[in-house]
Structure formats: structure tokens, C-alpha cells
Amino acid sequence: MTIDVLIAGGGVSGLATALALLESGRGVRVIEAARIGAGASHGNCGTITPSHAPPLAAPGTVLKALRWALTPDAPLYIRPRMDPLLARWLLGFAARCNHRDWEASARGKHALLDDSRRRLGDWVARYALACEFVESGEDYVFRDARAFAHEQRELPLLRELGVAVELIDGPAYEAQEPAMLPGVAGALRFSGDAALRPDKYLAELARAVRERGGEIVEGCALHGLREDREGVVAWTDHGQDRARNAVVALGAWSALSADALGLPWLKRVIQPGKGYSITYRAPARVPKRPLVLRERSVCVTSWEDGFRLGSTMEFSGFDRTLNPRRLAALERGAREYLHEPVGPEVRERWYGWRPMSRDDMPLIGRAPGLRRVWMNAGHGMMGVGMSPGAAQLLADLMAGRAPAIDPAPYRPERFA
């Protein structure tokens, strides 16, 4: 039997793509090497943030990374080692740490994040996604007045893009947010941001896909993919499949699978950016909305029965170590800001590999040089927040429809 669309990857991007394609009248089979949501989608903080448009590749990032090179628990850490692919990626990344490229990436990221933020509310209602979605807004909190002033340099561009932001001085913020310790220098409130519980979101996407006739096969890794005149041939743990079209939504594994996919250039484009989180039973006093403890780059979110500290960016390849030093940095950072920085019970200590593209923007569209293979990968730290918009953009491109946003910034051929 010939599959209509074979989607490789059962994370948030693959499942959202499956749902958008089903709504477009296509048939789908999703294959996942492990289990649904086992990758970077699972342990992130679940914030939906058009405010996070500015990319990691920014003026000053290279100098900051060099200063932190000997600090293994720094928010951004590059583990010293001989790795030619990482070196090449870093050179390309460093070349983009200028104002012109920073602004171009910020505009591209915002268009997709904003479209996704608007679309997500519709998806939650239309598909009855029980994922604790809340239009909460998000606060960046500062304890250093200089850091608070420095962050405001990005606000003119964000306001031009339509991001609503409010500046709140320290005493006023402490009065509004009783979870905070004294000593707040100021806060930025992004009222248009939202949040959800990511594990429930993925489970609900999978449910919606299955209810609409989509097939999801777990424990089925992709080992090879080739295009011929009749479509696409895929070699998997379950044998050989034939499909009319294929979608690569493998996240950070896109780089590991590049040769098998017939897309060797992907190894130069995507690096795994390792992130960490700790999930607790919620303490008695939790913040009213998601927070970023800005100087420490720690994200704080809470749900009905959970509380999570997350973030950090570590370039250490596909290292499978759950580094206790970097986990401890999350708790240490939270203790500087919060009355109750941790919960009474640890439920999970986690790491995941984010798919970091060289320009911090995803690859969405037809794979270069191919007709029937498409891509939805490289979303960096924004996979959950970009998922509805990226999926709909790809579904529109595959159907030959005019998409809601300009697809040019995300075209994979910019790297090939």
C-alpha cells in the first residue's frame, strides 16, 4: 500500500504537521523512533512567545560565549572538543552576530511565532485540546538595573513588530508578584504571550491526529529515504514503505540522519543545543504567570499540579549525560529571585536536544533538489511555540495554496 504522506518524527512539529495535513485532505502516517513526545518537545517550559523573536545569534553573543567558555554551568556553554561540524556551524553562527542579520532573523521568527500564537487558540478550541492552555502573558524579571536597561534596546523593534510590552519598576513589580524576593530592579511584561503544558499538548495532538484517521507508529526509526519517479521509498524498523510524499520533522536528529535522508548538507546546518529542566510538585507560592529570570536565563512555569524550572543552552553534541551541575544552576538561579524556588517533591530531571539552525530560524518547505520530500525542522528553542504556524505553512505549500505568511525566510534552500 502506498502511503499518502509519510512524516518522520513524532515530536511536536511532526504531530502538528500531521494534523494540518489531515485538515487539508491528505492521509498521513507518522513514524517515531521512540515514543510520542520523547524528544525536546517533552521537557520544555511550554511558553508560547512572540516576544522571543530576537535570535540567539545577536551582537555580543560571541564575546559572551567566550567569557563563559570556562564556566560549565553558564547559561550558554560550548564544551571544548575537536568537532569539525560544530566548528563550521559556529563560524556560520558567528557571522550572523551582527545587527542586520539579527534584525532579519527577528522579523522572520516573529512572523511565525505570531501566526502560531493566534492559530493555537483556534486549535485548542477546534480540536478540544486539553493541555492547560492559558493566555497568561510572560514577564522578564531583572535584579540588575544595568541588565534591565540593556534589555530595553530591543524594545523598539519588538514594538514595531506589534509585540505589546509594559515596563514595570522594581517596587511595583514586587507588590504585584508576591512570589518574588525583594531586590527586583524591574520587569518587562509581554501580555500577548501564552503558555500550555507541553506533555499534554503532545498527547492531545496525537489524539486529534488519530481521531481524524491519521496513523502513528511508535518504535519505528527511519533508516533511509530516497525519491524516485513514483514517489518516495523509506526504509524503517518495520521494513520498506512507499509514499507519495515525505516530511522530515526529526528535530535535532535531522543532522544525525542527514546521510540516510540524502540531505548531507543538513549536518552543517543543525546542531543539538542541549537544554535542561526540573519538574516538581508545585510549592505553595508560585508566580502568577510564566517568568524568565533574565540574568540567569531560567524559565519558570507552573500548571495545575506541577512547577518547572528550565532553560540553558549547551553545545556538547549528542551527549546523553544528565549533568547535575547544570541542573543545580537552575535551582541556584531560582533561589536568587523566588521565595519558594523549588517544589517539595522532584518529579523529573530532564534534558533534551533542541534543533539549532545556524540562523536560528526553522527550515520549512521543499527539500532542495527534491520534488516529493518536504521539511519542517530546525525550530531551535521554539518548537512548541511555532508548531501550529509552521505546520499550516507547510500544508499550504504542499497544497499549492498561498500561505498566511511569507515562506521565503524559512526555505531550506538558503543553506543547500
- Separation, N- and C-terminal Cα atoms: 33 Å
State mean pLDDT (0 to 100 scale): 96
Can you tell me the number of structural domains?
A: 1
Number of strands: 19
What spatial form do the alpha-carbon principal axes imply? globular
Outline the biggest β-sheet.
9 strands, mixed
Q: Pick out the low-confidence regions.
A: none
CATH homologous superfamily annotation:
FAD/NAD(P)-binding domain
Relative helix content: 25-40%
CATH class: Alpha Beta
Total helical elements: 12
CATH T-level fold name = FAD/NAD(P)-binding domain
Rg over C-alpha atoms, rounded to the nearest angstrom: 21 Å
% residues in beta strands: 25-35%
SSE-based structural type = alpha/beta
Can you name the CATH architecture? 3-Layer(bba) Sandwich
**What oligomeric state do the depicted chains represent?**
single chain
Q: Can you give a write-up of this model?
A:
The protein is an alpha/beta fold and 416 residues long. The protein has one domain (2-414): FAD/NAD(P)-binding domain (3-Layer(bba) Sandwich). It has helices at 12-23, 61-67, 84-95, 99-126, 145-151, 155-160, 170-176, 198-211, 253-256, 258-261, 324-335, 383-399; strands at residues 2-8, 28-32, 47-48, 76-78, 138-142, 166-169, 186-190, 194-195, 215-218, 222-228, 231-236, 239-248, 270-281, 291-293, 298-303, 306-315, 345-357, 363-366, 373-377. The strands form three sheets. Strands 4, 5, 6, 7, 13, 14, 15, 16 and 17 form a nine-stranded mixed β-sheet that branches. Strands 1, 2, 9, 10, 11, 12, 18 and 19 form an eight-stranded mixed β-sheet that branches. A hairpin with a 6-residue loop joins β18 (363-366) and β19. The two termini are 33 Å apart.
